[in-house]
Design brief:
440 residues, alpha+beta, Spore Coat Polysaccharide Biosynthesis Protein SpsA, Chain A, Jelly Rolls, 12 helices, 24 strands
């Protein structure tokens, strides 16, 4: 029997359902389950016991509503979410079953591919029964620091457990591992499988300052039915650190399993854009701009077939000498290349070093279309921030200043196409190239 532990205490944005703040994974729409509810469904069935859900007091009412039809034990953190302590409190609640196997999952996990999850769990169970702590991860070049990085000794293959030589906690942008050629890495997804006694021993050995106050907070907790409210005074002594930082990076009995490379807890948020107010506001701004409300110089919607045909026509008129006359400029933050320029468009490429941040002034002319060729980019326009993955693109409204940041550990490569709207005569207006306004 597998005992699920679901961590649903993270805070992301204000919720309309409560006076506090709501974990984004708890947000749902009519007829559409929340990510938390999807996780509950994915790790339920004959082989799973009733889950233990850990959340914060602000999210408690919403969690109770979403687990109303499911038998579950609820542990409530009195104030802010503390990931390592939250996990420990759930494991301590199962201490009467030392040999039991737990499956730890964040409420934000994407477990839509249950067949792949079942296959990974089947491979993880024997390793966990031997006393290993099994971490689930994925191979990716994208910026993702949510649950740390695992350096594995051999190339992962077909969900088979592989030894982990070290674990790096989240938030470290550049490490020695990223600089060495040939190292194998997995980005943590926040899923673990382990025995209760193994996890308790790991916390006792490597996080004793965390273990004692969490144990006391649980012993002094108030309990109503299957809801446990951790003691506020004792729990305040606990630091808000991750399991990777508190335990995983210090232990040796750890192995990793690679899930499908396309499986990502963050990549799928684009499918939930309706629930993400920041993305929705971004889209609303674009719609207003197209209607002429947000910006008097609003461009036609991009991509527009007439605009693109104008670009192709301009390219066909460029001489061979001009087509090969691209030039590049080196900066402290990286490299800017002008690839092509013609009537109605400019095409440039930027290579941005890890951690670099650029403030770009509003460019005269039409809207810009950014394509991420390598890495991932954080784009800030006004109060709206969006993370764009490799292979994805973003449209920048005309006349808007923006900030571009490379949050990853490798070089970010962006290709920028600016297309001018057609003039009244049907010809594309001239486009002007831009240059960075500064580096933060």
């Amino acid at each position: 029997m597998l005992h699920p532990i679901i961590l649903a205490g993270g805070v992301t944005q204000t919720s309309e359902w409560s006076t506090g703040v709501c974990h984004l994974a708890l947000e749902s729409a009519p007829g559409v389950p929340s990510r938390f509810e999807s996780v509950l469904d994915a790790i339920s069935g004959d082989v799973f016991a009733d889950p233990v859900v850990v959340t914060t007091r602000d999210n408690m009412s919403l969690v109770e509503r979403q687990i109303a039809a499911r038998p579950a034990a609820l542990i409530v953190e009195p104030e802010t979410h503390k990931p390592a302590a939250a996990l420990l409190s759930a494991v301590l609640s199962l201490r009467h079953m030392p040999g039991a196997l737990v499956v730890v999952a964040p409420a934000s996990a994407n477990l839509a591919d249950t067949r792949n999850l079942d296959k990974a769990l089947c491979n993880a169970i024997p390793a966990a029964q031997r006393g290993e702590i099994v971490m689930f991860g994925q191979r990716t070049t994208r910026a993702y620091g949510g649950f740390g990085i695992m350096e594995v000794v051999t190339q992962p293959h077909e969900n088979a457990p592989v030894a982990v030589s070290r674990v790096l906690a989240s938030g470290r942008k550049v490490t020695l591992s990223h600089l060495l050629h040939g190292n194998h890495q997995l980005w943590g997804t926040g899923l673990y499988v382990a025995r209760v006694d193994v996890l308790l021993a790991a916390f006792k050995s490597h996080a004793s300052r965390l273990f004692l106050p969490v144990k006391n907070a649980l012993l002094r907790a108030g309990t109503v039915d299957r809801t446990t409210l951790l003691d506020r005074a004792t729990y305040r002594r606990v630091k808000a650190i991750t399991f990777e930082k508190a335990v995983a990076e210090k232990i040796e009995n750890i192995c990793a399993i690679q899930l499908d490379p396309t499986w990502s807890a963050l990549e799928e948020w684009d499918q939930d854009a309706a629930a993400d107010s920041a993305v929705a506001q971004w889209d609303e701004d674009l719609a207003q701009e197209r209607a002429g409300v947000l910006n008097a110089r609003a461009a036609a919607p991009f991509p527009h077939s007439a605009d693109m045909m104008a670009v192709y026509a301009s390219l066909s008129k460029i001489s061979a000498e001009d087509a090969l006359s691209a030039h590049a400029t080196e900066y402290d933050w990286g490299r800017l290349e002008s690839l092509a320029m013609g009537p109605g468009f400019t095409l440039q490429r930027m290579s941005i070093a890890p951690g670099a941040t650029l403030d770009l002034n509003a460019a005269p002319g039409g809207a810009e279309h950014w394509i991420v060729a390598q890495g991932s980019v954080l784009i800030t326009i006004g109060d709206h921030v969006r993370l764009v993955w490799e292979g994805h693109s973003a449209r920048i409204p005309a006349g808007r200043s923006r900030r571009i940041e490379n949050p990853g550990s490798g070089t970010l490569v962006l290709v920028q196409l600016q297309v001018m709207p057609l003039s009244a005569t049907g010809q594309p207006q001239s486009a002007a190239s831009f240059s960075p306004a500064g580096v933060a």
